[in-house]
Design a protein that fits this description.
Elements (H helix, E strand, L loop, with lengths): L18 H21 L8 E7 L8 E7 L37 H21 L10 H28 L1 H10 L24 H22 L5 H38 L13 H16 L8 H9 L20 E8 L2 E8 L4 H26 L34 H11 L3 H10 L31 E2 L2
Antiparallel strand pairs: 1-2, 1-5, 3-4
Bound molecules: benzoyl coenzyme A.
Length: 472
C-alpha cells in the first residue's frame, strides 16, 4: 500500500480505518515532538536541512530529497509489503503461516524484544544531541541530522507495533520510551552501549560504523520473525540503516585519509603536532566501540536466544538462505568462552549459541570495512594497519565480562591490564585531545575541518559546495 501523506501521521497501514489506534498514536505524537525538542539535536528547530524522506516502501526509488525543518519531518509508519505466502522459516512452527497477530503465549517475549529494539532508537538521538555544534562540515551536519530523524522514525516503527498489538501494556511501554534517557542514572536506556556518551565526531563515526551495524544484524534477525508486522517493520528499517553505516565507514575513512595526508605532507608521525588525529588514537576508539558493540549481542550461550528461535520469534541472519534443517535440535556450534580464567573453545548446542553465531556474522562484516580502511592507508603510502581487537577484549556482558584480556587475546593480570590499558582504550588525555579539535561547526559550503578529508561525492550527487543546511 502507498504511503498516505495526507494524514497527520503518514502511514501505509491504513491507519484512518482504525480510529482508536489512530487517536492513541495521535496522542503519543505531541509527546514525541516534545521529546525531540528537549532531547533531540540541540537548537536546530529553525534549520532547513536537505533530507531524504520515504515516499514508498518498495526497493526502487523510495526516497525524496528536499529541505525540511526537522520538527516538521514526516515521521510515520511504514511497513514493507506483505507477502501473503510467507511462512515461518524455522523452529517448532516451521512451515506454518506467519502470524498477523501476537500469539498469546509469545506476548511478553515479543513485547520485550520490541521494547529493547525501540529503546535504542531515541537513545542514539540523545547521545548525538550536541554533535551539531561541532560539525566538521555542512555535509556531515546534514548526515548527522538524517541519521537522527531516521532513528526517530525507527522509534515510531516500534511504537506503532506496541500500540497496535499490545493494548494498554504496549501504550505504557511507548510512554516509557520517552522517559528513559541515555546515561540517566535513575532511568537509563536498556542496553549498555546506549548509555555511553558520543561527545565527538570520531566517536560518532565509530558508533555509526560499529553500533549501527549491530542494528543491522538485530533487525535482520527480527525481520525473520514469525510475527509478520514486526518482520515487515524491520525490513523497511533495514533500508534506512544502510546509510547510517555508510556515514560511519566513510567518516572514519576520511579521518584516516586526512591523517595520512598530514603525515606525508609534514613528514612526521606526530600528527597531533599538525592538528590531525593520530592513527594510534583512532585504533583506540575503534577498540572501544567494537567491544562495546559486541556486548549488544548478549551471552555466548543463551537459553533466551534458543527459545526465541524455537518459538519462531527471532531467526538467524538471512535465515532462509542457510542450507540446514532450520530446527537445529541436534546441531552443535563451536564458541569461544571462558573456563577457569582461560579462553577456551567449546562445542555447545547450536540453539543456545545463536547470539554468538550472530556476533560472528557481525564480526566478519565489521572486518570488511577495516580491510577497506587498510587499503586506503596503504594507498596513501603509510605503513599501518587498523585491527579489530579479540572478541574477548573489554567485555562487560557474557563469558568474558570482568576478565582482563589484551586486544590480541591474551589473559592478563590486573596489573598488566592497568599498565597497558591506556595504549588500548582512549585515555582521558586522548579524549581531551580529540575534543580539543572539535571547534565551532564549519558552516561554509564546501569547507571541512582540518582533521578530516572531504567526501568522494556529495549526497544525491550534489556539487561539492552544496548548501546542505540553511541556518535561517
Ligand atoms: N546490556 O540470554 P541473554 C540498534 C541481559 S542496535 C544489558 O544473552 P538475550 C541501533 C538480557 O536482557 C540493536 N543487558 O539475553 C543501533 C538478559 O536479561 P534477563 C538493538 C543485557 O535476550 C544504533 C540477560 O542479560 N536491538 O538498533 O538473548 C543506533 C541474559 O542475556 C545485554 C536488539 O537488541 C546488554 N548488552 O540477548 C540506533 C534486538 N545483553 O533475561 C539503533 C532485541 C544481555 O536475565 N534484543 N543482557 O533479565 C535482543 O534480541 C536481546 O535482548 C539481546 C540480548 C540480543 C540484546
Amino acid at each position: 500500500m502507498a504511503i498516505d501523506y495526507s494524514q497527520l501521521i503518514p502511514n501505509n497501514v491504513d491507519l484512518s480505518n482504525d480510529r482508536r489506534l489512530q487517536r492513541a498514536l495521535e496522542n503519543w505524537q505531541p509527546r514525541f515532538l516534545d521529546w525531540w525538542k528537549d532531547m533531540g539535536p540541540d537548537g536546530t528547530s529553525a534549520f532547513d536541512v536537505y533530507l531524504r524522506t520515504a515516499v514508498s516502501t518498495d526497493s526502487n526509488g523510495w526516497a525524496n530529497f528536499g529541505y525540511v525543518k526537522m520538527p516538521e519531518y514526516r515521521w510515520g509508519i511504514f511497513l514493507a509489503e506483505r507477502d501473503p505466502e510467507r511462512t515461518i522459516a524455522y523452529g517448532d512452527n516451521k512451515g506454518k503461516p506467519v502470524w498477523q497477530d501476537v500469539p498469546g503465549e509469545l506476548r511478553s517475549t515479543l513485547r520485550r524484544l520490541i521494547v529493547t529494539q525501540g529503546d535504542t532508537e531515541p537513545a542514539s538521538v540523545e547521545q548525538q544531541r550536541l554533535l551539531g555544534k561541532t560539525a566538521p562540515s555542512l555535509y556531515d551536519l546534514r548526515n548527522l541530522f538524517q541519521v537522527n530523524v531516521e532513528e526517530g522514525r525507527h522509534l515510531w516503527a516500534m511504537v506503532y507495533l506496541l500500540h497496535a498489538y499490545f493494548g494498554r501494556d504496549g501504550r505504557e511501554e511507548a510512554e516509557e520510551m520517552l522517559v528513559r534517557h541515555s546515561g540517566d542514572p535513575d532511568k537509563p536506556r536498556i542496553l549498555g552501549a546506549f548509555n555511553e556518551a558520543t561527545p565527538d565526531w570520531l566517536s560518532f563515526f565509530m558508533f555509526t560504523y560499529f553500533t549501527d551495524r549491530d542494528g543491522k544484524y538485530q533487525l535482520a534477525s527480527l525481520a525473520e520473525s514469525g510475527f509478520d508486522p514486526l518482520s515487515r517493520s524491520c525490513r523497511f528499517m533495514l533500508t534506512e540503516e544502510a546509510h547510517h553505516m555508510f556515514v560511519g565507514e566513510t567518516g572514519v575513512g576520511r579521518i584516516l585519509l586526512r591523517t595520512c595526508e598530514l603525515m606525508k605532507e609534514h613528514k612526521t608521525d606526530d600528527v597531533r603536532s599538525v592538528g590531525g588525529i593520530d592513527l594510534a588514537t583512532i585504533q583506540k576508539y575503534l577498540n572501544f566501540h567494537f567491544s562495546v558493540s559486541l556486548d549488544l549481542f548478549g551471552q555466548e550461550a543463551s537459553t533466551n536466544a534458543a527459545n526465541y528461535y524455537t518459538m519462531g520469534v527471532k531467526g538467524r541472519f538471512l535465515e532462509t538462505r542457510i542450507d540446514d534443517d532450520h530446527l537445529l535440535t541436534g546441531a552443535t556450534y563451536e564458541i569461544d568462552t571462558a573456563e577457569n580464567g582461560r579462553i577456551v573453545k567449546k562445542t555447545v548446542p547450536a540453539l543456545s549459541a545463536l547470539n554468538e553465531r550472530l556476533r560472528q556474522d557481525y564480526i566478519e562484516d565489521c572486518a570488511k570495512g577495516v580491510l577497506r580502511w587498510n587499503k586506503a592507508i596503504e594507498r596513501a603510502g603509510i605503513n599501518f594497519e587498523m585491527k579489530l581487537p579479540h572478541r574477548a577484549f573489554n567485555r562487560r556482558i557474557g563469558a568474558f565480562a570482568g576478565m582482563r584480556i589484551s586486544p590480541d587475546g591474551r589473559v592478563l593480570s590486573e596489573a598488566e591490564w592497568k599498565a597497558n590499558e591506556g595504549q588500548w582504550l582512549p585515555s582521558d588525555e586522548d579524549r581531551a585531545y580529540v575534543t580539543s579539535l572539535m571547534g565551532p561547526a564549519v558552516t561554509q559550503p564546501g569547507k571541512y575541518a582540518h582533521w578530516i578529508a572531504p567526501p568522494a561525492r556529495g549526497i544525491n550527487n550534489q556539487a561539492a559546495d552544496f548548501e546542505y543546511v540553511r541556518f535561517n
